[in-house]
């Protein structure tokens, strides 16, 4: 009778070590690719969110500008919380001051000169403080005015609500003023206003920015 021999071929320790090393490298490559892809998707999503926030913010400001008669180089109403001396704000490249018609709660315009359809004016002031874009309201001192003067956030009290927070993570807020001939002028002579808002944040160690601009013509009276 012939005897049968069974041989069992296996991996040597060297072969196992090489296979393990190759598998580890492949896993690292796949994980690195996955992490990079996820990070890029997150960055793109963050950039889209910033752009959407900038657009919504400027749409709201543009609506105020569209209903305003003009811009101011200096606020027409006094504000004890104004940053400068004399309790007034200075409009310019980084501060937008709008003259909006005072209205009652039924949205009827309150006229200072009904014959010439000249209304009392509230002031809407857009400014940046510590990376946040705010809107301060200065209400004209006239009976039945539907709005109230606002105060810095944290300093509000009855009759003076907080300033409206328009956007966070602001890296740039700039304003340009143009006359009817499309020439850049000072705020008092402007027929339209161009506003640029840039927002930014850090995502996965990278600075992400989004910028949006809009231009609006004043209603005028």
Structure commentary:
The protein has one domain. It is 24% helix and 31% strand. The chain has one helix and ten strands; from the N terminus they run αββββββββββ. It has one helix spanning 13-66, and strands at 68-71, 96-101, 111-113, 118-119, 121-129, 132-138, 164-167, 170-178, 192-203, 206-217. Strands 1-2-5-6-7 form a five-stranded antiparallel β-sheet, with helices on one face. It is elongated and about 105 Å long. 25% of the residues are buried.
Write the layout of secondary structure elements.
Layout: H1 13-66, E1 68-71, E2 96-101, E3 111-113, E4 118-119, E5 121-129, E6 132-138, E7 164-167, E8 170-178, E9 192-203, E10 206-217
Antiparallel strand pairs: 1-2, 2-5, 3-4, 5-6, 6-7, 8-9, 9-10
In short:
This protein has 221 residues and is an alpha+beta fold. It has 1 helix and 10 strands, in the order αββββββββββ. The termini are far apart.
Strand line-up in the sheet with most strands: 1-2-5-6-7
Number of folding domains? Answer: 1
Q: Estimate what percentage of residues fall within beta strands.
A: 25-35%
Instruction: Indicate the low-confidence ranges by residue numbers.
Output: none
Rg is 30 Å
Indicate the percent of residues in helices.
10-25%
Mean pLDDT across all amino acids: 88
Oligomer category = single chain
Which geometry do the CA atoms define?
Answer: elongated
According to DSSP, the number of beta strands is 10
Give me the strand/helix succession: HEEEEEEEEEE
The number of distinct helices, counting runs of at least 4 residues, comes to 1
* Largest β sheet strand count, sense and barrel closure: 5 strands, antiparallel
What structural class do the secondary elements suggest?
alpha+beta
């Amino acid at each position: 009778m012939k005897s049968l021999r069974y041989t069992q071929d296996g991996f040597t320790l060297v072969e196992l070590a090489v296979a393990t090393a190759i598998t580890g490298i492949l896993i690292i490559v796949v994980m690195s690719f996955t992490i990079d892809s996820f990070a890029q998707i997150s960055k793109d999503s963050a950039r889209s969110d910033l752009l959407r926030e900038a657009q919504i913010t400027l749409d709201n400001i543009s609506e105020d500008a569209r209903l305003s008669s003009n811009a101011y180089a200096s606020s027409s109403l006094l504000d004890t919380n104004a940053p400068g001396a004399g309790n007034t704000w200075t409009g310019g490249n980084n501060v937008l001051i709008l003259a909006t018609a005072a209205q009652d709660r039924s949205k009827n315009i309150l006229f200072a000169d009904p014959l010439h359809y000249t209304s009392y004016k509230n002031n809407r002031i857009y400014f940046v403080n510590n990376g946040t874009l705010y809107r301060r309201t200065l209400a004209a001192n006239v009976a039945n005015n539907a709005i109230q003067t606002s105060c810095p956030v944290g300093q509000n009290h009855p009759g003076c609500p907080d300033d409206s927070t328009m956007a966070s993570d602001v890296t740039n807020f700039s304003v340009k003023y143009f006359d009817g001939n499309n020439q850049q002028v000072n705020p008092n002579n402007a027929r339209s206003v161009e506003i640029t808002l840039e927002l930014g944040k850090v995502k996965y160690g990278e600075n992400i920015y989004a910028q949006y601009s809009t231009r609006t013509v004043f209603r005028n009276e």
